[in-house]
Amino acid sequence: MKRLVDRDFRRQLEGWSLATAEIFYRMPDAQSVLQTYVWQDYDLAPKFPQLRKFLDFWTRELDGPIHSVRLAHARLLRPAEVRYAGAELTIH
């Protein structure tokens, strides 16, 4: 029986980390009001191409101008934490 490996788990093994960005932006019709939006996805540090792609989309397509972005990320799996659990995984 062939089992599929979860895409997110595979990405973690390839070095992707969970990135969380808190985006502060101004309301288009009330520039004095600052709102927040939380974005989270797997991304590659230190260049964060997924976050950059999202911020480019935001700047190009949305009316609320970005004020600032706070970023946090953490590798969920490290090489020392990956162990065989009584099973063998064969990839062709």
Radius of gyration: 18 Å
Query: Strand count, sense and closure of the main sheet?
Result: 3 strands, antiparallel
Class by SSE composition = alpha+beta
Shape: elongated
How would you describe what is shown here?
The chain has one domain (7-75). With 92 residues, the protein is an alpha+beta fold. The radius of gyration is 18 Å and the shape is elongated. The chain has helices at 7-13, 49-61, and strands at 17-27, 30-43, 66-74. The protein is built from two helices and three strands. The chain starts with 6 loop residues before the first helix and ends in an 18-residue tail after the last strand. The chain is 22% helix and 37% strand. It has a three-stranded antiparallel β-sheet. β1 (17-27) and β2 (30-43) form a beta hairpin.
Give the key terms:
alpha+beta, elongated, 92 residues, three-stranded antiparallel sheet
Task: Give the gist of this structure.
The chain has 92 residues and is an alpha+beta fold. 22% of the residues lie in helices and 37% in strands.
Secondary-structure blueprint of this entry?
Blueprint: H1 7-13, E1 17-27, E2 30-43, H2 49-61, E3 66-74
Antiparallel strand pairs: 1-2, 1-3
